[in-house]
Amino acid sequence: MDRERITAQERGGAPVQRRRTSPETLRLRRAWPTFTVGDIGTSLKFYRDTLGFVVDEIWEREGRRVGAALLAGSVQIMLSEDDGAKGAGRDKGLGFRLHLTTIQDIDALAESVVARGGALETPPDEMPWGVRAFTVVDPDGYRLTISSEG
Fold first, then answer.
1. If you write DSSP's letter for every residue of 52-87 in order, what string do you get?
2. pLDDT tens across 83-139, in order?
3. Residue 148 CB contacts under 8 Å (≥ 6 apart), including other chains
4. 116: closest CA among 60, 43, 46, 40?
5. Is it the case that residue 82 has pLDDT exceeding 60?
6. Where are the domains of the chain?
7. Is domain 34-84+91-148 in CATH 3.10.180.10, yes or no?
8. 46: region left, alpha or beta (phi > 0 left; psi from -120 to 50 alpha)
9. Do 70 and 55 form a contact (C-beta atoms < 8 A)?
10. Average pLDDT, the chain
11. Torsion angles phi and psi, residue 30, rounded to 5
């Protein structure tokens, strides 16, 4: 069975019920990205102190922090310190962007990120698809676009 593709413009922005294909399509319940980071301390400071994530778990190996699980609302991300096996100083976040949505006021949220020492790659703005969004870049180059729900 072919999958019907309908653009947002064709459907007037309304949700579309999609037919399942045969064989049955994958149906997931959760996803949590794991970011390979250069320095766990620097990344924890950024995600906790600048963005406002809560530290759920810290992982240690031989008495040294090597990773963490972080929460923001119902979203979880993981940080794992690079062991250097693929080369020290390699690009980590290149070509990656995580889109996150919130019911919080986007402008106030962006202001609080800046007030806590963060730099915005793009300031809050209206997107053509009807949400307001801004983008920050973490210490390893991972882009996080935070937007209103649309």
1. --EEEEEEEETTEEEEEEEEETTEEEEEEE--STT-
2. 767 777 778 888 889 999 999 999 999 999 999 999 999 999 999 999 999 999 999
3. 101, 102, 103, 106, 131, 132, 133
4. 46
5. yes
6. 34-84+91-148
7. yes
8. alpha
9. yes
10. 87
11. -150, 155
